[in-house]
Amino acid sequence: MFRSLMTALGVFALVVAAGSVTAQQSNPANSPQPSAPTSTGCASVPAWNQLRTQLNAANNAVHLTLNNDMWATIVAADGTVCAVVQSGNDNLQSQWLLSRAISAQKANTANGLSLQAGQGQKSDLKGLALSTANLWKAVQPGGSLYGLQHSNPVDPAAAYAGSSQAFGTSTDPMVGHRIGGVNVFGGGLALYDQNGTRVGGVGVSGDTSCRDHMVAWELRHNLNLDFVPAGVSGDNARPDNIIFDTNNGFGHPNCLDPAAEKAAAGALSPTRH
Fold first, then answer.
1. Can you state the angle between helices 258-266 and 209-222, rounded to 10 degrees?
2. Residue 162's closest CA among 150, 145, 177, 174?
3. For a Cys-Cys bond, which of 38, 42, 123, 158 suits 177, CB 3.0-4.6 Å?
4. pLDDT band at 37 (very low <50, low <70, confident <90, very high)
5. Which are the contacts of 203, defined by CB distance < 8 A and separation ≥ 6?
6. Which three-class secondary structure state does DSSP give residue 44?
7. How far apart are CA 204 and CA 105, in angstroms?
8. Distance, CA of 260 to CA of 242 (rounded, Å)
């Protein structure tokens, strides 16, 4: 089953060449300018205040090795960024700054590679949700999705425009834009409402990819958007969970403490059905 699914997913591994653009905040005239904001489905996902409150709760609930503060981003079903938050009290110093854009990349990936309930041809995988943690193995050299991580670059104009003082606020410059990007390690999950409708994605970054996944998981649960139709984990209570087995086609390596990480993944809140 997994082999046929991996073959089907292989079409996503087309590599698109793209130039890189560097944001020059010190010279606004030369700074990249994002495209005009797109229409969004942000009304279907939680707003900034709720996202930040529940990120703090989720981050405090998952204890592993580093226990860093985090960034979290929500995108709508069309990939538009709806909200960007951080758990620390300083948007530039309390958590890894690079993780702001990575959290958006993760949200975009999980949203863009997951299906709505009832969609898909394989009966037991209709509504397949893929977490970013489920992609790690397939993108390794020789894997069926090798190169996927290079296929849809993050839009630097959207990621780095505006004042850094607005990062993580309700007016974060990424809001209203499609960030793009493909991420292939833990921390990104699709969001599903009670009808199995895929309403968007959430991405968390700022710690090991293992803990990123677990904080994102509890954040999604706190937001009541974990009505996940199907996944590849083999655990019906946690369909799109991280799989700590690099021999599995959807596997992911451990990070710093294999025993603790495996135990924590198995104790994550069951999804709603």
1. 20
2. 174
3. 158
4. low
5. 72, 73, 75, 102, 103, 104, 105, 106, 107, 108, 109, 110, 132, 183, 187, 188, 189, 216
6. helix
7. 9
8. 14
pLDDT in tens, 188-198: 999 999 999 99
Q: Model's pTM, two decimal places?
A: 0.87
Local structure of residue 166 (DSSP, 8 states): G
Residue-wise pLDDT tens digits, 47-93: 999 999 999 999 999 999 999 999 999 999 999 999 999 999 999 99
- CB-based contacts of 160: which residues, under 8 Å, 6+ apart? 23, 25, 31, 32, 101
For each of the domains in the chain, give its residue range(s) and CATH number, in order of start: 42-266 (3.30.450.150)
Q: Which position has the token pair 């069926």?
A: 144
Phi, psi at residue 13, to the nearest 5°?
-90, 15
pLDDT digits (tens, 9 = 90+) for 161-192: 999 999 999 999 999 999 999 999 999 999 99
7 burial (CB, 10 Å; 0-12 / 13-18 / 19+) is exposed
Token pair of 223 as six digits = 């937001």
Distance CA 118, CA 95 (A): 39
